[in-house]
Amino acid sequence: MNKFLSLALFFFFTSIHVQAQKVGFINTQEILALLPEVKQANSDIEVMKTMFQKKGQDMVKALQTKYQELQKAQANGEIAPLEAEKQTKVLKDEEAALGEFEKTSQQKIYEKSEELLKPIQERMNKAIKDVAAENGFLYIFDSGVGVILYSDPTADATKMVKAKLGIAP
Questions:
Q1: What is the domain partition of the chain in residue ranges?
Q2: How far apart are the C-alpha atoms of 161 and 28, rounded to whole Å?
């Protein structure tokens, strides 16, 4: 009888503990889309991308023009074969520099994205933790990335996180 009572008490207290756990979910994509800082950061990143693209396109056009001029000079016999070979090497070096420019541009854009978006992400994470602590959530899942298969709409903490961030519903 003692084993039966112990086992019954164990399941009773375990079920009480499980029922006391509060789980919520939020949609981080929805929240991020409403934050003005995200819109400004994305705008700044786009400006930077456009600037690098324009400079890259200008570099490509200049290189193409130089190649065409060299080919024209060769076709017209205006340049010695040795000099043409020398200029071709210079153009190949410029082509390699263009590739390096594209690579460093992408790295700079990535670094700028990190610089601008990291504080926003940290602020949102703090708001999520605060909402969880204030409302007794043991877990909060992100429905914006499709992690949840089923959820009770009353467990949606998105509005609370928006309020914590000062975003109107």
A1: 18-165
A2: 9
